[in-house]
Structures are given as structure tokens and as C-alpha cells.
């Protein structure tokens, strides 16, 4: 699948058996999932859709949700990131398999370039730098390290082709939800079902919290006795 060919919308069955198109790239869907939080979304998904725990916010308060554009680089080579910025669609989140290299794949210059293209954020299994600048620009960035080491620009890698991070395959158009708790990636075809389950989970947890505040024990609420 090319970088400019989004996945088709997901479909969901209603109670009558008909199908309604669900656009997994809808920004309002991404915003609601982000508000629900990565932990709730992960629990609602009932599958191992979380990316490695080493992917942490590069600055305090970074949060982002949106359709993924997967990118793969050679070790310490950031040419694919320049290519991805040129290829990305507005609202996308770059999800980069950077081989975990602790080097400065990304900094303030690429951030400004990305924002000019409408890119929503970056998740990279590799290093970033200029973190104060990223925070000032309010560009959500998640990385496995903060690092200064330079990169080369020799290998184009891949842009838009599936990548694997921590056992999770990320396709073009899958939905990324990243916050202070972690990063999850939902297959485009499951976004609607996971959103419904996450809403239900949030409502249930609110009821549990109210019961706890009234004196009930979690042992009884969850039936653990």
C-alpha cells in the first residue's frame, strides 16, 4: 500500500444487519479516543495493540491521536523521515521503526516542516532532540530516547509500508492513540467496535468509582472474594 493510499473505511453491523461506513480517519473519532485515554482504549480492544513501553513522551503533556503513516529507517539514517514529511496526509501520525538507535532522527527543523504539512505527531522507536523546541511548538512526540548523535541520509527506507514494533504490525491508516500512559495502535477495521467498548468501559468505571467512594471494596465490586 502506498503512502498516499489510505485504508478503506471500516464497516460496522447494526442491529438490523445493515452496514454503516465508519471512517477511522475522522478527527472527531481520534479526539474521543484520546479523551478516553490509551489505557482504556487498550483494555477495550482486548488485543495486544500496545507499542513498546520504552516509547515515552519527549516533553511533558504530549498527547496525540490520528491515523498512522508507518515509516522504516536504516539504523541512524533519517532520510525516510524527510520523505515521510513530504508524503504524509494532514492529520497523520508518523510511526517510525528507527531500529531503536539513540540518535537525533528528529528535531525542531523537521517539526516545523511537519507542521506545515498538517502532520499531527510523531512516534519513533529511536531518538529525538530539540525537546524544548518540540514542546514550544506543541508538537506531540514520543520516542525511545532523547539523543544528540547525528544521522546520515543514505537509505530511503520505506514510507507507507507496514512496520512491526514490539510485535504489533502498524499499517497505513491504523489509528494511533498516544498519551502519558503509552501508545496503542488500533487496526482501522476495529476502530468503531473499540470506541463503543471504550465508552462502555468508561461508564462502568465511573459507576465503580462511585461505589468505592460510598465505601464498597474492590473485592466485592469485582467479585474477587
TrEMBL record:
<feature type="binding site">
    <location>
        <begin position="107"/>
        <end position="110"/>
    </location>
    <ligand>
        <name>substrate</name>
    </ligand>
</feature>
<keyword id="KW-0456">Lyase</keyword>
<dbReference type="GO" id="GO:0008948">
    <property type="term" value="F:oxaloacetate decarboxylase activity"/>
</dbReference>
<comment type="similarity">
    <text>Belongs to the class II aldolase/RraA-like family.</text>
</comment>
<feature type="binding site">
    <location>
        <position position="130"/>
    </location>
    <ligand>
        <name>Mg(2+)</name>
    </ligand>
</feature>
<keyword id="KW-0460">Magnesium</keyword>
<feature type="binding site">
    <location>
        <position position="129"/>
    </location>
    <ligand>
        <name>substrate</name>
    </ligand>
</feature>
<feature type="compositionally biased region" description="Low complexity">
    <location>
        <begin position="14"/>
        <end position="25"/>
    </location>
</feature>
<dbReference type="GO" id="GO:0046872">
    <property type="term" value="F:metal ion binding"/>
</dbReference>
<comment type="subunit">
    <text>Homotrimer.</text>
</comment>
<comment type="function">
    <text>Catalyzes the aldol cleavage of 4-hydroxy-4-methyl-2-oxoglutarate (HMG) into 2 molecules of pyruvate. Also contains a secondary oxaloacetate (OAA) decarboxylase activity due to the common pyruvate enolate transition state formed following C-C bond cleavage in the retro-aldol and decarboxylation reactions.</text>
</comment>
<keyword id="KW-0479">Metal-binding</keyword>
<dbReference type="InterPro" id="IPR005493">
    <property type="entry name" value="RraA/RraA-like"/>
</dbReference>
<protein>
    <recommendedName>
        <fullName>Putative 4-hydroxy-4-methyl-2-oxoglutarate aldolase</fullName>
        <ecNumber>4.1.1.112</ecNumber>
        <ecNumber>4.1.3.17</ecNumber>
    </recommendedName>
</protein>
<dbReference type="Pfam" id="PF03737">
    <property type="entry name" value="RraA-like"/>
</dbReference>
<dbReference type="InterPro" id="IPR036704">
    <property type="entry name" value="RraA/RraA-like_sf"/>
</dbReference>
<feature type="region of interest" description="Disordered">
    <location>
        <begin position="1"/>
        <end position="25"/>
    </location>
</feature>
<dbReference type="GO" id="GO:0047443">
    <property type="term" value="F:4-hydroxy-4-methyl-2-oxoglutarate aldolase activity"/>
</dbReference>
Amino acid at each position: 500500500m502506498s503512502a498516499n493510499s489510505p485504508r478503506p473505511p471500516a464497516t460496522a453491523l447494526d442491529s438490523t444487519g445493515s452496514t454503516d461506513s465508519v471512517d477511522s480517519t475522522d478527527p472527531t473519532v481520534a479526539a474521543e479516543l484520546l479523551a478516553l485515554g490509551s489505557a482504556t482504549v487498550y483494555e477495550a480492544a482486548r488485543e495486544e495493540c500496545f507499542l513498546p513501553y520504552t516509547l515515552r513522551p519527549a516533553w511533558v503533556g504530549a498527547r496525540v491521536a490520528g491515523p498512522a503513516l508507518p515509516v522504516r529507517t536504516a539504523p541512524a539514517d533519517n532520510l525516510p523521515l524527510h520523505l515521510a514529511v513530504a508524503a504524509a496526509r494532514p492529520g497523520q501520525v508518523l510511526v517510525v521503526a528507527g531500529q531503536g538507535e539513540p540518535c537525533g532522527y528528529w528535531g525542531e527543523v523537521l517539526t516545523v516542516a511537519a507542521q506545515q504539512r498538517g502532520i499531527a505527531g510523531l512516534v519513533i522507536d529511536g531518538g529525538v532532540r530539540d525537546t524544548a523546541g518540540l514542546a514550544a511548538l506543541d508538537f506531540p512526540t514520543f520516542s525511545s530516547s532523547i539523543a544528540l548523535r547525528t544521522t546520515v541520509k543514505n537509505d530511503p527506507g520505506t514510507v507507507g509500508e507496514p512496520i512491526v514494533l514490539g510485535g504489533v504490525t502498524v499499517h497505513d491508516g491504523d489509528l494511533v492513540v498516544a498519551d502519558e500512559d503509552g501508545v496503542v495502535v488500533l487496526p482501522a477495521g476495529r476502530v468503531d467496535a473499540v470506541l463503543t467498548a471504550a465508552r462502555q468501559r468508561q461508564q462502568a468505571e465511573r459507576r465503580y468509582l462511585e461505589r468505592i467512594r460510598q465505601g464498597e471494596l474492590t473485592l466485592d465490586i469485582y467479585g474477587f472474594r
